[in-house]
Design goal:
Layout lengths: L1 H43 L18 H7 L2 H32 L6 H9 L6 H12 L4 H7 L15 H26 L3 H9 L4 H12 L1 H16 L3 H6 L13 H11 L3 H30 L2
Helix pairs in contact: 3-7, 3-10, 3-12, 4-7, 7-10, 10-13, 12-13
């Protein structure tokens, strides 16, 4: 018994060693490209450092964070990001859930429509934004279509009242495919017997959707809302391309990540940019915890 036990222990240790060796490359990649850069950025946020003067790194303590409290441009970027998230996340969540419910039906050509809705999600966001700018400029295709109905369209990309709204529409369209696929996966896990029972009870499509589909996919809704919020808080490329890299007009497209980019790579205030990045991280963390409290607890029971 003692020899067998010792042999089993040696075999278990050998298997554990093999497992750790398989994990080692992933751990090294995470350590080098994720954990160490995050720790370095956090340390850098307490310094004044410019890439133009890499040898000069004076300690400034909390001055970068205090300065952010009184930075009007940073406040504008947070407000733009909050407004953007407030409108985009609910609209893309509701639309993608409805589309997923339709595509989950046994209809002719459903595979084509699933691929068609997902296609914008795998296309380069920069390329889509450039096409979008051509469509929505003052003399573009969209205003031409409005003019055919006697409607004078605004300058979507030149008017600060409309630019961010136009980018919202672009983002909703490009993210619908991903969110729809996620909802489709959740809907496929709903037992068909539930819908059959609802049909026998005389429930119509709308009542079935509201009282059966939505409650049963609540964990998926929570996941989509959280991922949507994180993605919206991190919006950069569409705003950068649409504004020509300036965040205009009148800072209407200046988002939080755009502000971080401008601080670090335009003004070369790397320490200040790192401080803004960790403030954004705190905002995302608090928002996610709030969503978990409101949506997550009820969906996982």
């Amino acid at each position: 018994m003692g020899l067998r036990r010792k042999k089993n222990e040696e075999q278990g240790a050998s298997e554990a060693l093999v497992g750790y060796l398989f994990l080692l490359p992933v751990v090294v990649v995470l350590l080098v490209f994720v954990i160490l850069p995050v720790l370095w950025s956090f340390w850098l946020s307490f310094h004044e450092w410019s890439a133009l003067e890499p040898d000069r790194m004076p300690w400034v303590g909390l001055n970068n964070y205090i300065q952010l409290l009184f930075d009007d441009e940073f406040h504008i970027s947070l407000w733009n990001t909050a407004i953007y998230t407030f409108w985009v996340v609910p609209i893309q969540t509701v639309l993608s859930l409805i589309i997923a419910a339709v595509l989950n039906q046994k209809i002719r050509g459903v595979a084509f429509f699933r691929a068609a809705f997902y296609f914008p999600s795998i296309t380069s966001s920069v390329v889509i934004t450039i096409i979008f700018m051509w469509i929505f400029n003052a003399t573009g295709l969209f205003n031409y279509m409005l003019a055919s109905f006697g409607i004078v369209g605004p300058n979507w990309l030149g008017d600060p009242d409309y630019t961010l709204k136009a980018i919202m529409g672009l983002n909703i369209w490009t993210t619908l495919g991903t969110m729809t696929i996620i909802f489709l996966a959740g809907l496929m896990d709903v037992p068909g017997q539930v819908y059959e029972a609802a049909k026998l009870d005389g429930a119509g499509p709308v009542k079935t959707f509201l009282h059966i589909t939505v409650p049963l996919v609540k964990p998926t809704i929570f996941f989509v809302v959280v991922m949507g919020c994180i993605g919206c808080f991190q919006i950069f490329d569409q705003a950068f391309v649409a504004s020509g890299g300036g965040g205009g007009p009148m800072n209407s497209t200046l988002t939080a990540v755009f502000f971080i980019y401008k601080s670090g790579f335009t003004r070369f205030e790397m320490g200040y940019a790192c401080a803004a990045a960790f403030v954004l991280f705190l905002v995302i963390l608090l928002t996610t915890l709030f969503q978990q409290k409101v949506l997550g607890s009820g969906g996982t029971k």
